[in-house]
């Protein structure tokens, strides 16, 4: 049996004076898969993510990375293995130039100046940020700040890259750019985890979907299995993808086979219309 990349075993986590943000959560994240974490506001998605690289430690239960328990002793090592891009880029931007900000994480490591500059230049180029290298991040647009924050995480070259609500507050062009980065990472063999409210993104992109509700995990599903389960969608307070919603009244096949991706929906409509 293949060891999960990240595994939660009956994990509970409590903030001070509050009900558990996570309660008895068991789930696994598969290596080199594209995993989406979904759920309504307050479901525990962000708290779940922060356990994956040791920023939070379970109140009870266990989180494991490649079979090794994440503890106080090794939590600092997890930044070498799991990178997180936060929802708000201002939470990650700390330097006065884009170049320095992207290099910030590398500068904390025992690394030669040559390697630091090589990686910084590489990710500036990869994410089309080279022309902004000497700009102050505070002067950039929200979408540009988002790409700077992503570049800073990518320079660390972790095996797992996590995105918390990566599409929030972005225009369609910005969303396509972020999804392109996510796809690039997956194609390069990274394990990519995304917490999102964007159900069409889940339908188009994810291999596996973890469904959260009020701090509990309702299970892990393929996108098709999730979106054909009306009871689960209702219980988790989710919506079906736009493609499935549009075809709801005209679909004449089995409910479990309704198209959830835009390309699938377009293909079916062309056949239906002749």
Please tell me about this protein's structure.
By secondary structure, the chain is of the alpha/beta class. It is 35% helix and 21% strand. It has ten helices and ten strands. The chain has helices at 45-51, 98-107, 113-126, 142-154, 172-187, 199-205, 223-227, 230-235, 242-247, 262-273, and strands at residues 6-14, 20-29, 34-38, 60-65, 68-69, 82-85, 160-164, 191-195, 208-213, 216-221. The strands form two sheets. The chain has a six-stranded mixed beta sheet, with helices on both faces. Strands 2-1-4-5 form a four-stranded antiparallel beta sheet, covered by helices on one side. Strand 1 (6-14) and strand 2 (20-29) form a beta hairpin. Helix 2 crosses helix 3 (113-126) and helix 2 (98-107) runs parallel beside helix 4 (142-154). The radius of gyration is 20 Å and the shape is globular. The termini are far apart. The mean pLDDT is 94.
Features:
10 helices; globular; 274 residues; alpha/beta; 35% helix
How many β-strand runs?
Answer: 10
Radius of gyration, CA atoms, in whole angstroms: 20 Å
The biggest sheet, with number of strands, parallel, antiparallel or mixed sense and barrel status, is: 6 strands, mixed
Question: Helix segment count?
Answer: 10
Shape: globular
Strand order of the largest sheet: 6-7-8-3-9-10
| Beta-strand proportion | 15-25%
| SSE run | EEEHEEEHHHEHEHEEHHHH
The assigned structural class equals alpha/beta
Helix content: 25-40%
Query: Low-confidence parts, pLDDT < 50 over ≥5 residues?
Result: none
Distance between the termini: 47 Å
Overall pLDDT confidence? 94
């Amino acid at each position: 049996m293949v060891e999960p990349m990240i595994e939660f075993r009956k994990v509970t986590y409590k903030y001070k004076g509050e009900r558990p943000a996570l309660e008895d959560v068991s789930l696994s994240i598969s290596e080199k898969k594209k995993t989406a974490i979904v759920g309504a506001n307050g479901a525990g998605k962000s708290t779940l993510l922060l356990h994956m690289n040791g920023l939070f430690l379970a109140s009870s239960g266990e989180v494991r990375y490649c079979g090794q328990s994440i503890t106080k002793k090794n939590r600092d090592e997890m930044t070498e293995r799991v990178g997180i891009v936060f929802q708000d880029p201002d939470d990650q931007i700390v330097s006065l130039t884009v170049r320095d900000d992207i290099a910030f994480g590398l500068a904390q490591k025992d690394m030669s100046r040559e390697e630091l500059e090589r990686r910084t230049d590489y990710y500036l180029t990869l994410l089309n940020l080279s022309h902004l290298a000497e700009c102050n991040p505070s002067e950039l647009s929200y979408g540009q700040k988002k790409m700077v924050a992503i570049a800073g995480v990518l320079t660390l070259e972790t095996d797992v890259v996590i995105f918390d609500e990566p599409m929030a507050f972005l225009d369609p062009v910005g969303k396509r750019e972020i999804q392109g980065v996510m796809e690039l990472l997956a194609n390069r063999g990274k394990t990519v985890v995304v917490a999102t409210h964007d159900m069409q993104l889940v339908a188009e992109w994810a291999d596996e979907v973890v469904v959260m509700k009020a701090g509990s995990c309702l299970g892990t599903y393929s996108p098709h299995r999730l979106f054909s389960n009306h009871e689960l969608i209702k219980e988790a307070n989710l919506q079906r993808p736009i493609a499935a919603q549009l075809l709801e009244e005209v679909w004449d096949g089995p409910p479990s086979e309704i198209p959830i991706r835009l390309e699938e929906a377009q293909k079916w409509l062309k056949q239906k219309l002749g």
